[in-house]
Amino acid sequence: MNILALILLMLGAGAVAGLSERIHPAAPKWISLATFIVTLTWVGAFMVGGGYANQYIPWIPRFGISIVLSMDGLSQLLVALTLFLGIVAVVSSWTEIKERPGFFQFNILWVMAGVVGVFTALDLFLFFFFWEVMLIPMYFLIAIWGHEDKAYASMKFFLFTQISGLLMLFAILALVYLHYSATGVITFNYYDLLDADLGGDIAFYVMLGFFVAFVVKLPGVPFHTWLPDAHTQAPTAGSVILAGILLKTGAYGLIRFVVPLFPEASADFAGWAMFLGALSILYGGFMAYSQSDFKRLVAYSSVAHMGFVLLGVFAFYEVAGSLVVNELAVQGAVVTMVAHGFSTAALFMMAGSLQERLHTREMSNMGGLWTRAPRMGAVTMFFVVASVGMPGLGNFVGEFLVLVGAFKANIPLTVAGALGVVVAAVYGLYLMQRSFQGTPNADVPSMRDFGLREMSVMVLMMAGLVWIGIHPQELLDLSAPVVQTLWVVLP
Amino acid sequence: MTGPALTALAPYIVLAGGTTLMLLAVSFVRRGPVTLGMTLAVLLGTLGSIGFAANAGTQHVDSFLLVDGYAHFFTALFVLAAAATAVLTHGYVDRRAAQREEFYILLLTATLGAMTMAAAAHFGAFLLGMEILSISLYAMIAYPDRERAPLEASIKYLVLSGVASTTILFGMALVYGETGTMVFAQALGSDGSVLLRVGQGMILAGLAFKLSLVPFHMWTPDVYQGAPAPVTGFVATVSKGAVAALLLRYVATTEVLSLESLFFGLSLIAVVSMVAGNVLALLQDNLKRLLAYSSIAHMGYLLIAVLAVASAAGTEMAAETGMVYLVGYFVMTLAAFGVMTVLSADDDVEDLADYEGLFWRRPLLAAVLAGAALSLAGIPLTVGFIAKFYLFAAGVQGSLWLLVWALVIGSAIGVYYYLRIVFSMTKQMEAGDETAPTWWGPATVVVLGAAIVVMGVYPTPLIDAAREAIRAFGG
Question: Is ipTM strictly over 0.95?
Answer without folding.
Answer: no
